[in-house]
Specification:
470 residues, globular, 21 strands, 14 helices, single chain, alpha/beta, 7-stranded mixed β-sheet
Length: 470
């Protein structure tokens, strides 16, 4: 068996792994690269292995860094099924057309700049179109947690709840080989135990080959109590005392719903004043509705509070879902008292960039970073303390306060990863650490050796491993 690490090797984005047994060829994830000057090039070169030769795709969850190249895969000749949980299928119906819309608008913007500012250069082409995204949706096949799926006579799969976002999964894949059945496990993105809304990750106990994520493999998150206190203080200080706005870059799927849940809960506890919260993402309302359709996947205390968010007239946290461009532009006329949640979560595209451009220069405002920021992204530069950034070609001073609320991450920290790994009854014959920057992956590698007694390796981008099962 040959295992190719086509993305998320030595970095966090672009998750894509190609498994080739000789009898069957399939992908696990097909994600978009994000951040850094090479992201555009890598996305256009990513599928050079021949999409038409792939039999099927197994998808761990809906986030764009795991699913965002599916439309391009289909456009380049893939014709097979894409298996994902029902919740992931529902979320992708919202996310992939939205991602394509962003691609189209970005291409229009670049073309306009080439024509007006530079006066030369070819028109920019989007990575894929909305039409191509809708074609990819027709390939999706929903599966249930814990129910075996057989996408090929020699392949059997079992999806387990990864506790990362709604519908996220770890995938156990059993392969029939000339030497018997062998199991390869992909952790997907693992959630942090005790995270809002979703259930805790389901343990996996056996694997011959394991790929485990390492986004936060080199650190531990703050406890939830400390995190909520920091969130509360940041909002109260900015809204009530400094008379500014709070800007929150957030994934429209997962993090936005978590934040709405937490803000409503903190208000009901009396820790936050009445708030006007503007969710400025065209797909956030649809994603929230999709979330509410899957209450069976919630942890026990989440359903009642999320349901209450629908009644924005009586709740002290009033939620305004902003849909039209004109409404989004109007938010920039609000100078104080607003909490604006907008995608993208790494500040790389979408409406969040406009809100940052208007609020970063204002010292009375605050930017709340609530999720991982990949190297090279605008969000990462803000976390690293840069004092000036370039947005839409203009230089913008960073005078707003930047808060990093790390305890809200939907990714397991080092302790959470080790706790999940500790459920394996014996060490896998081969363990690969993926989906982490080099320093995070190396720290997890050392921790696995020290605490679990396993050896693990860190694959390089584009590397291929030949696995000979004994």
């Amino acid at each position: 068996m040959r295992l190719s690490f086509l993305g998320a090797a030595g970095e966090v984005t672009g998750s894509c792994f190609l498994v080739d047994t000789g009898a069957v060829r399939f992908l696990v994830d097909c994600g978009l690269f994000q951040g850094g000057p090479d992201a555009e090039r890598k996305n256009r070169e990513a599928l050079a292995f021949g999409p038409s030769t792939v039999d099927f795709v197994l998808l761990t969850h809906a986030h764009i860094d795991h699913s965002g190249l599916l439309p391009r895969l289909v456009a380049l000749g893939f014709k097979g099924p894409v298996y994902a949980t029902g919740a992931t299928v529902d979320l992708l119906a919202v996310m992939l057309p939205d991602a394509a819309h962003i691609q189209e608008k970005e291409a229009e913007r670049v073309t306009y700049e080439r024509r007006t500012r530079r006066g030369r250069g070819p028109d920019a082409a989007p990575l894929y179109t909305v039409t191509q995204a809708r074609a990819a949706l027709r390939c999706l096949r929903p599966v249930e947690y814990g129910t075996p799926v057989q996408p090929h006579p020699s392949v059997r799969c079992l999806y387990r709840d990864a506790g990362h976002i709604l519908g996220s999964a770890s995938i156990e894949i059993t392969l029939d080989t000339p030497r018997g059945s062998r199991r390869i496990v992909f952790s997907g993105d693992l959630g942090q135990p005790g995270h809002p809304i979703v259930r805790d990750p389901t343990p996996v106990t056996q694997a011959d080959v394991l790929l485990v994520e390492s986004t936060y493999g080199n650190r531990c998150h703050k406890g939830m109590a400390e995190t909520l206190e920091e969130l509360t203080q940041a909002i109260v200080d900015t809204i009530a005392h400094r008379q500014g706005n709070v800007i929150v870059p957030a994934f429209a799927v997962g993090r936005t719903q978590d934040l709405l849940f937490l803000l409503a809960d903190l208000h009901h506890q009396g820790r936050l004043p009445a708030l006007h919260v503007y969710v400025d993402s065209p797909m956030a309302l649809a994603a929230t509705e999709a979330t509410l359709r899957h209450r069976d996947l919630f942890d026990p205390q989440a359903a009642a509070i999320l349901e209450r968010l629908r009644n924005t007239k009586t709740d002290g946290v009033r939620i305004h879902f902003v849909q039209e461009v004109e409404e989004s532009i109007a938010l920039n006329r609000i100078h104080h008292g607003a909490v604006i949640i907008s995608a993208s979560g790494m500040c790389e595209a979408g409406r969040i960039k406009y809100h940052l451009k208007h609020n970063l220069p204002r010292p009375e405002c605050a930017i709340l970073i609530t999720g991982f920021q990949a190297a090279g992204t605008l969000g990462r530069r803000l976390v690293d303390g840069t004092r000036r950034v370039r947005i839409f070609g203009d230089e913008v001073a960073v005078k707003a306060r930047i808060y990093t609320i790390g305890g809200l991450s939907a990714h397991a920290d080092q302790a959470g990863l080790l706790a999940w790994l500790a459920h394996f009854q014996r060490p896998p014959a081969a363990t690969y650490i993926v989906h982490g920057e080099v320093t995070a992956a190396a720290a997890l590698q050392e921790a696995i050796a020290a605490r679990l007694g396993w050896s693990a390796s860190i694959p390089s981008p584009g590397s291929v491993e030949s696995l000979l099962f004994s």
